[in-house]
Amino acid sequence: QVQLVESGGGLVQAGGSLRLSCAASGITFNVNAMAWYRQAPGKQRELVAFIIGGGFITNYADSVKGRFTISRDNAKNTVYLQMNSLKPDDTAVYLCNTGTYSRGSYVSSNYWGQGTQVTVSS
Hints:
Elements: E1 3-7, E2 10-13, E3 18-25, E4 33-39, E5 46-52, E6 57-60, E7 68-73, E8 78-83, E9 92-102, E10 105-112, E11 116-121
Parallel strand pairs: 2-11
Antiparallel strand pairs: 1-3, 3-8, 4-5, 4-9, 5-6, 7-8, 9-10, 9-11
């Protein structure tokens, strides 16, 4: 049974930082691609970043490049999202996903965590 549990969200002022964590179980973590998505009220779910296998391949949405960093600890079955220089537009529920990497793109699965709320005040 696949489980993804996110944590680390909260309320932060613009310019601040947060570190999100996603603990995974029920998967062969070190071979799975992992990703962070976010969904703001009234908007479509957006792929924020993904990371492949040992972490040698990462990819970011243009809106977060240079500010967010995705990483993984395969020994702890955990993926992280370090978010710096946060903006009010980053306010959303952040969700973890485990999927696959195919032809340069991340392909999501139907396995999602419950999400963690990030709110950035101006």
